[in-house]
Amino acid sequence: MKNTFLVLAILFGSFLFAQENNPSVQLEKVTEDIVMIKVFHDNGEIAQSGFVKNNKLEGKWESFTASGDRVSTGNYKEGKKVGQWFFWNEDELTEVAFHENKISSVNLWKDSKISIALK
Predict the structure, then answer these.
(1) Closest Cα partner for 105 from 85, 75, 88, 90?
(2) Which residue among 12, 32, 33, 70 has its CA within the 20 to 30 Å range from the CA of 93?
């Protein structure tokens, strides 16, 4: 029940954000239990896209700037962040590894690779 509330809060928050900035939120039923969600910027570019399965975030999720540049990409499994997530910020790339929905390591990429391990 707690996870369902969290997913609904995230979706509702995205919906409210989109309603304030652009009334364009697109839901597409993929299968009986999977829905693809796309939230759009004012200019029509995709702001976020991803999937929900059985009321939990699932699969690949991506975020973009209004000019179409990628901001983040990563995967969810049963509502939890898994594997490698990537975050772009100007000339920097941050790679964050998740294990059991917790950050296990962070790599910062610029001119040279800087690794930071979190335990």
Answers:
(1) 85
(2) 12
CA distance 63 to 37: 12
List C-alpha distances in Å: 92 to 3, 81, 97, 109: 32, 21, 16, 6
- Per DSSP, 115 falls in state E
Sequence letter at residue 51: F
pLDDT in tens, 70-95: 999 999 999 999 999 999 988 899 99
**Cα-based angle 15, 26, 66 (whole degrees, multiple of 5):** 75
Of 23, 4, 7, give the one whose Cα is nearest residue 15.
23
Q: How far apart are CA 27 and CA 53, in angstroms?
A: 13
* CATH architecture, domain defined by 2-117: Single Sheet (2.20)
Query: Angle at CA 97, nearest 5°, toward 45 and 37?
Result: 30
> 77 is written with which tokens?
């499994």
